[in-house]
Amino acid sequence: FRFPSPIGHISTCPSLIGQCCKTHPGSFQEELVIRPLHSGDIYASFQFRTLWDTDFLQEGQKVSHYRLFPKSLGQVLSKFSVRELHISFTQGFWRTMQWGQPFIPSPPGAELWVWFHDTVSDVDGNWKELTNVLSGIFCASLNFIDLTNTVQPSASFKPLGLGNATDHRFLRYATLPREIVCTENLTPWKKLLPCGSKAGLAVLMKSEKLFHSSFHSQAVHIRPICQQCSSKAWELRQTLNVVFDLHTSGQGKKEWSLFKMFSRTLTEACPLASSSKVYVDITDNPEGELFELSPATPLLGQAVVLGDRRTYSVYDLSRAETFGQLRSFNLLLRWKGDSGDMLRPLLHAERYVAGFGLQTGEIHTVIYNNHPYRAFPVLLMDSVPWYLQLYIHTLTVTSKSRDNKPSYIHYQPAKDRHRPHLLEMLIQLPPHSMTEVTVQFERALLKWTEYTPDPNHGFYVGSSVVSALVPSMVAMRTNFTQDQPLFSSFVPVKEESSYFVRVYTEPLLVNLPTPDFSMPYNVICLTCTVVAVGYGSFYNLLTRTFQVDEPSPPLSKRLANLIRRMRGVPLLT
Amino acid sequence: MAALQLEKQRGRYAALAIAAVVIVVGIPLWWKTTETYRAWLPFSEISELDSLQLQLSVDIEVVFSRGTLTPEQQKKFPLSHVNEKEHQVDAKTGLRYKYETRYRTATIMEEDALNQPTAAEADLSLHMLSESSCGSVVVYVIPESSTLLPEDVKVYVGQRRTALLRSPPFKTSWNLKEVLSNLDVEVEQVVSTMSFGHQDIVAALSNRVRMTKVTKESMADSMRAIKSSPGYEITFSLLNPDPKSHSLHWDIEGAVQSYIQPLLNKLAPIANFSVDSQILYYAVLGVNPRFDNSVSAYTLSADSLSHVINPVEARLGSNAASSNPVLNFLLYVPDAHHSPLFIRDHSKRKVPSNAFHSPRWGGIMVYNVNEMYGPEAERPVDININMAKVMGVFLAQLRLMLGVQHTHPPTGFVLQSPGSAGLADWELDRLLWSRSVENIATASTTITSLAQLLDQIGNIVINDNIAQQVSSAVTSLQSAVAELEAGNLAFALQYSREAILASERAFFDPSLLHLLYFPDDQKFAIYIPLFLPMCVPIVLSLLKIVSEAKKRRADKQAKSD
Question: What does the sequence similarity comment in the record state about its family (chain B) (predicted)?
Fold first, then answer.
């Protein structure tokens, strides 16, 4: 274990302090964090935050005039009485063991969770309409979200914003693990930014580069927040996380630049942004022995994020000197040595399907606690479609080959064609252990219209969600101030000693027994023939008259008679 | 032999019994299980609606003030008179206008009101005296010598539903009939200005009727106005293509409250309106304006305006939360390098308002700010937009879009400007008349074409909710027509809106798309393996029984002969 080494030469960054919020309604901030990963990949995380000062909680007040906040989302919020909305589209899977924790995690495919106001009477109706509208806004297949893949988690998804709603009747959560994310989802996402992709950090978002990456995730988080709690505001956070595999695509050379990653350089900040910054994580490189950054910056910043104190080089785009003589800012990083081993993330989870044949199977979820001496509880949430019929009596939780009884289990069984299984458990993870959760299931037979167009590909089961308060190495900051960088201020911190982490496992791909789809016609033909043959003989038996027939003469006699007839001789009788 | 006969008889009975079971149980069962569900629709009433006979009734009150009639002429008052006109628009659509005119003399209070110094004040005090009902018209005939109106003005149309008419010179020797017939032409002109003219109504019927007999002008009016709909979204967008140099502030809340909301309140019976606004940055027009040296400004020619909208439209975004038609009003502040920007009309003159509109879409106004700051001002420059100037233009465009036509009054007419409400009562009435007729025409066309479609394609499933929508649409349509006939304009509009809603809901119901269509060859492919082997023996044995019976009868006849 390595504790962050104290860094002596950091001057308090002037841009991180002061600069109180302006008085005009709404503000906009943008930032880009670049973290060189130990695997040689580059993690780039964009965050855009639009604040909209309005007292939305007041009933009857219709807000319809938009400045920085996008109108399309604002209308959705007010029409469907949304309290909090989180939506993410992800292509690829975040490899926690290689890359560490992301700033804001997301599962592969699309994920949507929404808290409605407690004044809503028909939550399911609102939810259905909301998903349809959102699928129009983001050009995604969110309209495939219906009651069969929607759950109401009781503990895993608490509101991140203002207010302490606890009644999970107003929460809806759904994932579409099969959703494929591409340019058509990025374009509407960029449109929500006040500057579009015309100025500021968003000019870097060229889709051919962004989607040529190991991991791509874009998200929109809307929540009510409270600024010093004197005024309430909507906060819209748009995040985009990319992991570039520059090691293999860069001919083995370990160096990168903004231009190499995005095929663009920065020339200006978005003029509407109150702050516009680029951060580069240099925690592992305190003396410059690992890599070299150019242009160098005198500004250094520190932030406590995900239980660790990190040091960043800060480039402030609102200052003219950042862009230098060329009026363009191209960050270049050259590796000098090989980076050491990465610290294992404290919490990690994976999942797979075991078993053989097409009748039964077993879902294994494995959760690792890599903390050497602290045990902590985690909340595991599983939403399994109805066509995998879980046998909940086979649920076992074992840690260190001993039975580990969950202290809280919330299980909602599925109803065929109506709702999925929901399983939520609070499990205590012993220190430095591996905990395995298994449950057996049986595969259901679907109706022939319920199969997807390519049923032999298999059916996706969304990721399990592991949420936990992980013991922190350093004291977390509990008070939120304006000067914190965006990436460290998303999840509210309630206590200093721990931080909140959400880990998504892999989605599962399960084969279901798949019929031959020309079967119905074959069956019709076969049964009809059988019925017709049976009916025919039955009918004959009933209607024919039977009489004793004279036995026909033997063949020799008939032949003899034939010859006799030809000769004109009297016939034999 | 008898046993054989008995056996044959038994076989015959068995064949007959099986045939009977197939016919009595099998065929109805097959029919019942394969039929598509089709709820009952009022086809006969719908076909009645197909040929539409609309009657519009207007209440007209003609009030004679002191000094216009001789006491003898006055003696016959009050008096009423009904005048009807019929037009056959096309083979299936007929119009009848019924003008019910009541004549009376002015009361003392009304005389007092008419003695006000100006026409506007007289109009106001007349309005205070009595509230006239929606769709009616009151004409006050004032003496020829009255000073209420300027010399050359014949008719004054006020803000409400009243008009002042300067009486033409009457001869004292005329009897009342002659006086009234002399007045008729003028009253008719007033009514066609204040409630409806034949051309407007025919234009409103454009959904049913081919436009042939309509004048170009009312055609243009009806093309410009957006179609009747239960609701409209009005979106004001401020386009700031250059946020680096201009930081724009507009008080849209206040402007909407003081300029747009009064008009929309007035229009509440016609449709629901919702207003919103947004600011779009880096939004540019689709055309590059040309620099004109003669005026040292950039200009947009009238020909290029049609290309301006499309690229902006992509940024505007549709309303995610409703499907009502959107009216867009864009305020474009040109960037610092392309200022000032002027719009030129076809004759190359500068458009004074620097704005233009696109029919049924909305309007665009160009707002130049280059004169508000010097060249060395610190960027971005804070600029407050003069909303009174902007809203004046947008309000005029909105009135055009909504179909509050600019009636071109006949000579000698003075129309009082609508004032702060943005809309005079009689203008609203005009709108109500044409919207009711338009709604009825649209709903009847929708319902008849739906009925035709359902009638033609027997495989479409008609659910109960569709049938219910169709019946409610038909009932509302009938009530709307009846209310128009009775002259209750407000109710007629109400019912016609309900009719249009119900008919559209039925027409666009997704359950109608679940067309149960199986091609005939596939049907046979499914049926033949079962039906052929089952039916052939039955038919054959039935044929045999019949032929045997025939033969037996012939034998019997031969025997008896």
Answer: Belongs to the PIGS family.
